[in-house]
């Protein structure tokens, strides 16, 4: 994670543009005053830089929640802010050289908005969830030039590694997305995907709500798969296998194939590790046999007029509100020059969305992006609007 360690944080006058970076405004945590967010825009990317107190120094890095599509935007924002505010930098891991050419050349990494605006159109399409080192995904894309592959991963280092390979191997049938795959599935049109690969997902034995496989993930998979399309789960965890089997079989109608220690064409990094340890590997393949209704999404993310005062909004810090099928958790409250910013998580328990909400004199709005237009987010938005209206 790129960062600067600095002696003291220094403010600038906002808004300010310098060297193609715009610093828009600053937000200060209402409870922990030494935590600060700086809103930044670089090219297409809108995100926050975060200032945090550490023992006897401060840390300046990018905020996890609003991660930009390009790591170079973070580098640029950090270095530019450092220069503009004349920060005293103690240490830094930000390279001041230009972009790595492979990363610069690759346009394979897409922001979520790319899929929201217009979902790619291809006669055959497959998805890999949590591709990690990308061995399987790259192999599939290379072997099947006529299939469009979408790889979804939340680990930035893995994404960068695969991006380099896409450029080196000159693959033009592979798109990557840095996003929670469970949410992504909700915007995929119905009946268009041939295969969904979920290989060696994290078992999350102690936090099962974080698992990729769940009833709702299977439901979405069935909707997006073509007739005869497949969802392929491969795991070394007997517990995860048993849990997944139960979850699949709970559907009224389902076709499942089970394999133990099946060899496939390419062995991933994790698979190699488990094989060395002589662990069993389980495959659960669900075949979809039904045509699904088209995806329709009614509703919007508009807010009514706000009734809560600034002090009432600040009191929301740490509050969780539940509704039928979901929740809203007000994680943090920040003060702005003329308003308040809330960091919230909302939606359904097994695929929550994390976002910011700005409340100022004139409006309430999500920042920098709207939530993903999914059924669970639209329901959560209606509930959030009610909460903000007392
Ligand atoms: C144990 S690794 C397996 C990686 C790879 N499939 C392999 O076989 O080597 C699981 C990967 O899933 C990713 N992951 C976990 N939850 C995810 C989610 N909700 N959406 C997308 N990726 C996720 C993790 O970042 C991690 O890289």
Q: Can you describe this structure?
A:
The longest helix has 14 residues, at 71-84. The mean pLDDT is 92. Strands 1, 2, 3, 4, 5, 6, 7, 16, 17, 18, 19 and 20 form a twelve-stranded antiparallel beta sheet that branches. The protein is 26% helix and 33% strand. The chain contains eleven helices and 20 strands. It is an alpha+beta fold. Bound molecules: S-adenosylmethionine. S-adenosylmethionine is lined by residues 129-133, 152-155, 158, 180-182, 199-202, 212, 268-270.
Produce the secondary structure layout.
Layout: E1 3-6, E2 16-18, E3 21-29, E4 36-42, E5 45-54, E6 57-62, H1 71-84, E7 89-92, H2 101-105, E8 109-110, H3 112-117, E9 125-129, H4 135-143, E10 148-153, H5 156-168, E11 174-178, H6 181-184, E12 193-199, H7 215-224, E13 225-235, H8 238-249, E14 255-260, H9 269-276, E15 282-287, H10 310-314, E16 320-323, E17 326-336, E18 339-347, E19 353-360, E20 364-367, H11 375-388
Parallel strand pairs: 8-11, 9-10, 9-12, 10-11, 12-13
Antiparallel strand pairs: 1-6, 1-7, 2-3, 3-4, 3-17, 4-5, 5-6, 13-15, 14-15, 16-17, 17-18, 18-19, 19-20
Bound molecules: S-adenosylmethionine.
């Amino acid at each position: 994670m790129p960062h600067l360690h600095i002696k003291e944080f220094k403010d600038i006058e906002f808004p300010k543009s310098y060297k193609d970076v715009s610093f828009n405004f600053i937000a200060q945590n209402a409870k922990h005053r030494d935590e600060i967010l700086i809103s930044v825009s670089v090219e297409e990317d809108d995100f926050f830089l975060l200032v945090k107190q550490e023992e006897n120094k401060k840390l300046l890095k990018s905020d996890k929640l609003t991660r930009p599509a390009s790591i170079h935007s973070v580098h640029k924002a950090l270095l530019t802010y450092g220069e503009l505010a004349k920060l005293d930098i103690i240490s830094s891991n930000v390279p001041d050289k230009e972009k790595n050419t492979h990363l610069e050349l690759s346009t394979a990494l897409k922001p979520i908005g790319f899929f929201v605006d217009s979902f790619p159109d291809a006669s055959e399409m497959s998805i890999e969830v949590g591709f990690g080192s990308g061995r399987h995904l790259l192999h599939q894309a290379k072997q099947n030039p006529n299939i469009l592959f979408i790889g979804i991963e939340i680990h930035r280092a893995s994404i960068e590694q695969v991006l380099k390979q896409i450029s080196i191997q000159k693959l033009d049938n592979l798109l990557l997305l840095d996003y929670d795959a469970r949410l992504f599935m909700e915007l995929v049109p119905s009946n268009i995907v041939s295969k969904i690969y979920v290989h060696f997902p994290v078992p999350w034995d102690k936090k099962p709500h974080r698992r990729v496989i769940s009833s709702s993930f299977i439901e979405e998979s069935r909707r997006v798969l073509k007739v005869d399309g497949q969802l392929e789960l491969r795991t070394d965890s007997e517990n995860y296998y048993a849990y997944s089997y139960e979850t699949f079989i709970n559907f009224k109608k389902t076709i499942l194939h089970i394999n133990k220690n099946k060899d496939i064409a390419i062995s991933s990094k994790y698979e190699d590790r488990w094989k060395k340890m002589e662990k069993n590997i389980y495959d659960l393949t669900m075949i979809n046999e039904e045509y699904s209704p088209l995806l329709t999404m009614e509703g919007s993310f508009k807010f009514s007029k706000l009734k809560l005062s600034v002090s009432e909004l600040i009191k929301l810090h740490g509050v969780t509100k539940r509704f039928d099928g979901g929740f809203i958790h007000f994680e943090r409250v920040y003060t702005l020059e003329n308003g308040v910013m809330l960091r919230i998580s909302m939606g359904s328990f097994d695929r929550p969305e994390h976002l910011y909400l700005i409340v100022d004199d004139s409006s309430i709005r999500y920042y920098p992006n709207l939530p993903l237009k999914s059924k669970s987010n639209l329901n959560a938005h209606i509930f959030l609007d009610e909460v903000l209206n007392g």
